[in-house]
Write a structure and sequence with these properties.
Layout (H helix, E strand, L loop, with lengths): L9 E3 L6 H6 L1 E5 L9 E7 L12 E8 L2 E7 L8 E6 L5 E11 L3 E11 L1
Parallel strand pairs: 1-8
Antiparallel strand pairs: 2-3, 3-6, 4-5, 4-7, 7-8
The structure holds fe (ii) ion.
Protein backbone atom coordinates (compact mmCIF):
# COMPACT_ATOMS: atom_id res chain seq x y z
CA UNK A 1 0.00 0.00 0.00
CA UNK A 2 1.21 3.50 -0.86
CA UNK A 3 2.03 5.70 2.18
CA UNK A 4 -0.88 8.08 1.47
CA UNK A 5 -3.41 5.70 -0.08
CA UNK A 6 -6.65 5.35 1.92
CA UNK A 7 -8.70 2.25 1.30
CA UNK A 8 -11.99 0.99 2.73
CA UNK A 9 -10.75 -2.58 2.35
CA UNK A 10 -9.78 -4.13 5.67
CA UNK A 11 -6.08 -4.95 5.93
CA UNK A 12 -5.02 -7.94 7.99
CA UNK A 13 -1.84 -9.50 9.32
CA UNK A 14 0.12 -11.43 6.71
CA UNK A 15 2.61 -14.20 7.27
CA UNK A 16 5.48 -11.74 6.97
CA UNK A 17 4.48 -8.48 8.70
CA UNK A 18 5.96 -5.34 7.17
CA UNK A 19 6.35 -1.96 8.93
CA UNK A 20 2.77 -0.95 8.08
CA UNK A 21 1.36 -4.10 9.66
CA UNK A 22 3.55 -3.76 12.74
CA UNK A 23 2.18 -0.25 13.43
CA UNK A 24 -1.45 -0.74 12.32
CA UNK A 25 -2.80 -4.21 13.17
CA UNK A 26 -4.71 -3.99 16.49
CA UNK A 27 -3.54 -6.34 19.26
CA UNK A 28 -6.68 -7.21 21.24
CA UNK A 29 -6.88 -9.31 24.41
CA UNK A 30 -8.66 -9.55 27.75
CA UNK A 31 -6.89 -7.47 30.37
CA UNK A 32 -7.04 -10.11 33.10
CA UNK A 33 -7.25 -13.68 31.83
CA UNK A 34 -8.64 -14.87 35.17
CA UNK A 35 -11.62 -12.47 35.13
CA UNK A 36 -15.17 -13.81 35.30
CA UNK A 37 -17.38 -13.70 32.21
CA UNK A 38 -19.66 -11.03 33.73
CA UNK A 39 -16.90 -8.46 34.24
CA UNK A 40 -14.16 -8.24 31.65
CA UNK A 41 -11.87 -5.56 30.34
CA UNK A 42 -10.98 -5.85 26.66
CA UNK A 43 -7.70 -4.15 25.89
CA UNK A 44 -6.50 -3.08 22.47
CA UNK A 45 -3.27 -1.47 21.36
CA UNK A 46 -3.01 -0.42 17.72
CA UNK A 47 0.23 -1.83 16.46
CA UNK A 48 2.76 -4.13 18.07
CA UNK A 49 4.87 -1.00 17.59
CA UNK A 50 2.40 1.69 18.75
CA UNK A 51 1.01 3.77 15.88
CA UNK A 52 1.91 7.50 15.76
CA UNK A 53 -0.74 9.89 17.12
CA UNK A 54 0.35 13.03 15.28
CA UNK A 55 -2.08 15.65 13.98
CA UNK A 56 -1.57 14.61 10.35
CA UNK A 57 -1.27 10.89 10.94
CA UNK A 58 -3.17 9.10 13.67
CA UNK A 59 -5.63 6.40 14.64
CA UNK A 60 -9.16 7.85 14.48
CA UNK A 61 -11.11 5.06 16.18
CA UNK A 62 -11.24 1.39 17.05
CA UNK A 63 -14.30 -0.88 16.99
CA UNK A 64 -14.65 -4.12 18.95
CA UNK A 65 -16.59 -7.19 17.75
CA UNK A 66 -17.15 -10.79 18.76
CA UNK A 67 -17.32 -12.48 15.39
CA UNK A 68 -19.60 -10.13 13.40
CA UNK A 69 -21.44 -8.75 16.45
CA UNK A 70 -20.56 -5.13 17.26
CA UNK A 71 -19.54 -4.54 20.90
CA UNK A 72 -18.33 -0.95 21.07
CA UNK A 73 -16.26 1.85 19.65
CA UNK A 74 -13.66 4.25 21.02
CA UNK A 75 -12.72 7.50 19.23
CA UNK A 76 -9.32 9.15 19.57
CA UNK A 77 -8.02 12.69 19.30
CA UNK A 78 -4.47 13.07 17.98
CA UNK A 79 -1.61 14.35 20.13
CA UNK A 80 -3.27 13.68 23.52
CA UNK A 81 -4.46 10.07 23.07
CA UNK A 82 -2.35 6.96 22.93
CA UNK A 83 -3.36 4.36 20.29
CA UNK A 84 -4.91 2.05 22.89
CA UNK A 85 -8.20 1.58 24.74
CA UNK A 86 -9.97 -0.54 27.33
CA UNK A 87 -13.63 -1.52 26.98
CA UNK A 88 -15.50 -3.03 29.94
CA UNK A 89 -17.91 -5.78 28.94
CA UNK A 90 -19.80 -8.79 30.22
CA UNK A 91 -20.71 -11.95 28.35
CA UNK A 92 -23.87 -14.00 28.91
CA UNK A 93 -21.90 -17.14 29.58
CA UNK A 94 -18.41 -18.59 29.70
CA UNK A 95 -17.02 -19.96 26.49
CA UNK A 96 -14.70 -19.48 23.58
CA UNK A 97 -15.01 -16.21 21.68
CA UNK A 98 -13.23 -14.64 18.72
CA UNK A 99 -12.45 -11.03 19.55
CA UNK A 100 -12.07 -8.79 16.55
CA UNK A 101 -10.90 -5.20 16.52
CA UNK A 102 -10.87 -2.83 13.54
CA UNK A 103 -8.77 0.35 13.66
CA UNK A 104 -8.97 3.32 11.30
CA UNK A 105 -5.81 5.24 10.40
CA UNK A 106 -6.52 8.59 8.73
CA UNK A 107 -3.79 7.91 6.16
CA UNK A 108 -3.64 4.14 5.79
CA UNK A 109 -7.21 2.91 6.10
CA UNK A 110 -8.75 0.05 8.04
CA UNK A 111 -6.80 -2.66 9.87
CA UNK A 112 -8.11 -5.74 11.66
CA UNK A 113 -6.69 -7.83 14.46
CA UNK A 114 -8.28 -10.93 15.99
CA UNK A 115 -7.71 -13.07 19.04
CA UNK A 116 -9.50 -16.19 20.26
CA UNK A 117 -10.14 -16.09 23.99
CA UNK A 118 -11.60 -18.48 26.53
CA UNK A 119 -13.73 -16.89 29.23
CA UNK A 120 -14.44 -18.73 32.47
FE1 LIG B 1 -1.01 4.96 9.69
Amino acid sequence: MDQTEFSFEINRLSGHPDEHEKTHVPCVCIHDSTAAHDSLALHVQVGAIPHPMEKGHHIQWVEFFTGDAFIGRVDFAPLICLPEAVLSVRFDRPGKYVLRCVASCNMHGLWEGTNEIVIE
